[in-house]
């Protein structure tokens, strides 16, 4: 299914029918908690204010049931307005939407986790989220500068004991009913092993990491699956607009892959559809 063209009120569905789109978007898997998670989600990173609300409304109308959000994206209030509007007009029921959000690094202190989650819930206009992730493995001081403005040598090193304190506060959110499941993001096998070897009550339901045709991470995926952790991919089409400091001119670009282009030409679809389809065969993605 192609979402390819924006006109006035938002994105129009072109190509395949909305009926087919809804079937694809309705595919679910099970988390270790037993909760269903739609295998394809709408990511909202870099979704501009003034546009993200319409994108979410259109996505819910064509069948998306998984929304991936984060406090640091700076747009959860607009997303919340869109969710509320589509629930109010009968497009969806709250219980049919799977909403993910993430704890930002400056709120990793165990005394700050609850307030951070409550802020997200207020912005999203929800009583609970379905999944709450730690955005990265390390925390930052409360007064830390925005992403990309902190020198690398001033960022704290990974400390599993410190992270376990954050994790205990995350577990308390489940006890309070503010999130149905909790998980991590951008964790390596080593960091997961250290976390799981300690005294934790709840195993992470998800590890959300970057994964696409050039970064498939099969060992990490297998590691997660054997422990009941869902391996979830972000940037399944690559991330060509990532910050310049992370770009190497020699890096291959998934959307320029020659084989994917040939397949797209043969089947009269976009390269994004091809690379996305490949990703969906083995991972869940947002």
Properties at a glance:
globular; 9 helices; alpha/beta; 286 residues; two-stranded antiparallel ribbon
Structural summary, described in words:
The structure is a single chain. This protein is of the alpha/beta class. Helix content is 34%, strand content 19%. It has nine helices and twelve strands. It has helices at 18-25, 52-62, 76-88, 113-124, 160-175, 189-196, 218-225, 258-267, 271-280; strands at residues 2-7, 10-14, 28-30, 36-38, 42-43, 66-68, 98-103, 129-134, 179-185, 206-210, 230-234, 284-285. The strands form three sheets. The protein has an eight-stranded parallel sheet. The longest helix has 16 residues, at 160-175. It starts with a strand and ends with a strand. Mean pLDDT is 87; it is low at 1-17.
Give the helices and strands, then pairings.
Layout: E1 2-7, E2 10-14, H1 18-25, E3 28-30, E4 36-38, E5 42-43, H2 52-62, E6 66-68, H3 76-88, E7 98-103, H4 113-124, E8 129-134, H5 160-175, E9 179-185, H6 189-196, E10 206-210, H7 218-225, E11 230-234, H8 258-267, H9 271-280, E12 284-285
Parallel strand pairs: 5-6, 6-7, 7-8, 8-9, 9-10, 10-11, 11-12
Antiparallel strand pairs: 1-2, 3-4
């Amino acid at each position: 299914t192609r979402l390819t063209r924006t006109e006035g009120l938002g994105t129009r569905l072109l190509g395949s029918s909305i009926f087919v789109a809804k079937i694809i978007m309705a595919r679910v898997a099970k988390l270790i908690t037993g909760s269903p998670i739609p295998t394809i989600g709408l990511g909202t990173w870099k979704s501009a204010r003034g546009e993200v609300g319409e994108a979410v409304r259109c996505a819910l109308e064509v069948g998306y049931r998984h929304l991936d959000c984060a406090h640091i994206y700076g747009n959860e209030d607009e997303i919340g307005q869109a969710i509320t509007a589509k629930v109010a007009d009968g497009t969806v029921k709250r219980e049919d939407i799977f909403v993910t959000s993430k704890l930002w690094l400056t709120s990793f202190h165990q005394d700050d986790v609850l307030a951070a989650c409550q802020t997200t819930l207020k912005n999203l206009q929800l009583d609970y989220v379905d999944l709450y992730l730690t955005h990265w493995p390390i925390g930052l001081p409360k007064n830390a500068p925005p992403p990309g403005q902190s020198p690398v040598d001033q960022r704290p090193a990974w400390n599993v004991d410190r992270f376990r304190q954050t994790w205990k506060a995350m577990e308390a959110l489940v006890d309070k009913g503010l999130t149905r499941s909790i998980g991590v993001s951008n964790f390596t096998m080593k960091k997961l092993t250290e976390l799981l070897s300690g005294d934790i009550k709840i195993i992470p339901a998800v590890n959300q990491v970057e994964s696409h045709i050039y970064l498939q991470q099969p060992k990490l995926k297998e590691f997660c699956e054997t422990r009941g952790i869902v391996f979830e991919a972000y940037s399944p089409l690559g991330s060509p607009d990532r910050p310049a400091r992370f770009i190497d001119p020699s890096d291959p670009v998934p959307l320029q892959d020659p084989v994917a282009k040939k397949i797209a030409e043969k089947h009269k679809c976009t390269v994004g559809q091809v690379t996305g389809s490949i990703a969906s065969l083995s991972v869940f993605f947002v």
